[in-house]
Every structure is written in C-alpha cells, then in structure tokens.
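Entry 14: structure prediction run for UDP-glucose 4-epimerase. Input pasted below.
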Amino acid sequence: MSVLVTGGAGYIGSHMVWELLDHGEEVVVLDRLSTGFDWAVAGAATLVVGDIADQELVENVIREHEVDSIIHFAGSIIVPESVSDPLGYYLNNTVKSRSLIESAVRCGVRHFIFSSTAAVYGSPKHFPVGEDTELRPESPYGTSKMMTELMLRDCAAAYDFDYTVLRYFNVSGADPEQRTGQSTKGATHLIKVACETATGKRPHMEVFGTDYDTPDGTCVRDYIHVSDLVNAHYLALKRMRNGKGSLVANCGYGNGYSVLEVINAVKDVAQKDFEVRVSGRRPGDAVAIVAEAERCRQELDWKPRFDDLNTIVEHALNWENKLARRNRE
Ligand SMILES: NC(=O)c1ccc[n+]([C@@H]2O[C@H](COP(=O)([O-])OP(=O)(O)OC[C@H]3O[C@@H](n4cnc5c(N)ncnc54)[C@H](O)[C@@H]3O)[C@@H](O)[C@H]2O)c1
Ligand SMILES: O=c1ccn([C@@H]2O[C@H](COP(=O)(O)OP(=O)(O)O[C@H]3O[C@H](CO)[C@@H](O)[C@H](O)[C@H]3O)[C@@H](O)[C@H]2O)c(=O)[nH]1
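Run finished. Output tokens:
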C-alpha cells in the first residue's frame, strides 16, 4: 500500500513526503515539475514526472504502487496571477482535479486529501472564520479551489470514497531539520520575499497597500508553519483509515499578523534592516483573514509545535541561507 502525493516536488508537497516517510509510509510522487524540483523529493520516495490529468499514467501509477490514498497538492497557487489568467487556473486547479478524482474513483482509491485554501472565504465580516462561514471567494484561484471542494463532496456521496478538505491559511517556514523548504523561483509569498530581501537576493521589497481598514492599514493573515500543516494531513489520513469519514477543516493557528508586523519580524530575526517600499493594492487580495482552528485540533487531535511567528521566520531564513550557499557553490 502506498500514498500518492501529487505536487510532491513543490514546497508543501516535499514536506508532506518527509512527514509520510518519517511515519513509515510508502510514498509515490506525481509532479510535472512546473514549479517544483526533482531534487526536492526525498530519495526514499518514488518520483513519477507527469501531469495529474494524464489518466493513463495516473491509473498505472495507482495500480502499480497499490495506492490507497491520494494527497493532492498539485495546482497553480498565485492569487493575482489567477486574476489575469482565470482560464489557466480553472484548467489546472478545477478541470485537472476532476480528472484526478475520476482516476481515483475508477481505481477504487478510498481516501483523498485536498489542498484547499482560506481564499474560498474571500474577506469574511467576522473573525475568526469557521468552516461553516459562507464561501465567497474573491479571486479565480479561490473559486477554482471551491469548485474542487464541491466535486469531492458530491463524489463522496455517490461513490465509495472519503475525502478531507484542508483549507490552509498562509503556509510558511521550512522543515526545522532543513531537509526541504520553499525553493520556488520568482516567489510571491510575503515571508519568502522578505527572507530573500533579508539575505540580499532582492535589493528591496514592496508592501501592497497601506490603506486597508486594518489597525496599521496593511492586510492581515494567519501564518501557519508548513511542518504543522503536513502533520495535520498525516493525522487526517489516519482518521480516514480509521473509518471516521469525510471532513472539512481549516488549517491555521487563529493568530492574525499584518504585512508590516511580518516584515518587522523578519528584520528582527535576521538582525538586518532592508528597504521596504509602499506600493498600491494587489489585485485579488482579501483584506484580513484569520482561522477558527478548533475543528482541526478536535477532529485530528492536532497539536501544533511551531505556533510562533519568530520560529516560522527563523526556519524560513535558515532555508533561504541554505539556498544561497547552494547557489554560490
Ligand atoms: N503556499 C500556500 O500558502 C498555500 C495556501 C493555501 C493552499 N495552498 C495549496 O497547496 C498546494 C501546494 O502549494 P505549494 O505552495 O506547495 O505550491 P508549489 O507550486 O510549490 O507546488 C505545486 C506543485 O504542483 C506541481 N504541479 C502543478 N500543476 C501540476 C499538474 N497539472 N500536474 C502535476 N504536477 C503539477 C508543481 O510542479 C509543483 O511541484 C496548492 O494546491 C496550493 O493551492 C498553498
Ligand atoms: O512582496 C509582497 C508579498 C505579499 N504582500 C502582501 O502580503 C499578504 C500575503 O500575501 P501572500 O504571501 O502572497 O499570500 P496570499 O495572497 O494571502 O495567498 C497565500 O495564502 C492563501 C491562503 O490565505 C493561499 O491560498 C495562497 O495559495 C497563498 O499564495 C498580502 O496582503 C500581500 O499583498 C506584500 O505586501 N508584499
């Protein structure tokens, strides 16, 4: 029996592979290497290079590796890019997920975990945001993920199949042992960008909008350490294997930090000042979003280990320094 990790050469997927291997699971990764890297996949996992919508390939992999569960990370992830390329996002995130789900159903895969996002909520009026809040995505990215959630709900009702939808808030940090981290080229995520600026890879960075209705005028997010996030996936897998059925749960800590607070944390931890320029709002950005995180703790018995912004930043910086050393060698 093995677990198929789609997008396992990417940032979060490569951490998932280590989490599964650390728990003694057999792992097969399917990734087309569009934003991921073959070297990011742990050597003990099998890497198959290909697209999730190649049904012949996917179904062969499922049968050959006796896949009982799929953890589906593969997708396109940049909110503003989805605003300018909605068709690309609906294709890669929605249409291709449908194809993967169909392959799973045809091959009798029993458990499916899906990377959803806080972006399905848009900018909710009340905080923290519980799972039963109305879904009102404000970007094609969020809508593309919401549509996949709905397909999973309907498929679980029709076929012999359980699913877990995990709605991630802002994923950041890196493996504390530095076995993997975020290596994305041309990264757009705030903590990654700030760490690249702190380590001199970028001359300066920008703050997108200081005129929001928030305490310091910048957007507020709930940053979750990637190692805690992938641990929630492992617990969700165990829960489904124990016959507990389908689940939709937020993955965040319930703490909101503004863009400026995050940048200051990076400056403090790196002990470095760097240039920060103020620019206009970025299309598709929600104003503020913070998770109600109780369901994940209760249903999965999830006990986060890195719920601390400075620790997240420290691990992200360690990985950035490792990448910089690697590039110099
Ligand atoms: N990073 C975050 O803050 C965040 C937050 C919420 C949800 N998510 C979701 O988590 C998942 C993983 O995100 P990430 O940050 O690791 O991104 P990433 O870009 O590092 O990883 C995505 C991986 O999927 C692969 N991929 C993309 N399309 C594919 C396809 N059609 N077939 C095969 N492989 C394909 C890419 O090569 C890459 O390795 C995504 O689904 C994303 O929407 C991420
Ligand atoms: O150089 C930068 C980068 C970001 N930001 C701001 O920082 C905040 C966070 O942005 P970012 O790190 O890009 O994350 P989000 O746009 O919130 O989206 C992330 O978090 C979502 C969940 O909340 C996921 O679904 C997405 O995949 C993931 O990209 C936003 O207000 C951005 O405008 C800046 O001001 N400057």
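Notes: The pocket of uridine-5'-diphosphate-glucose (ligand 2) is lined by residues 77, 79, 117-119, 168-170, 188-190, 193, 205-208, 219, 221, 259, 282, 285 (CB under 6 Å). Will compare against the previous run tomorrow.
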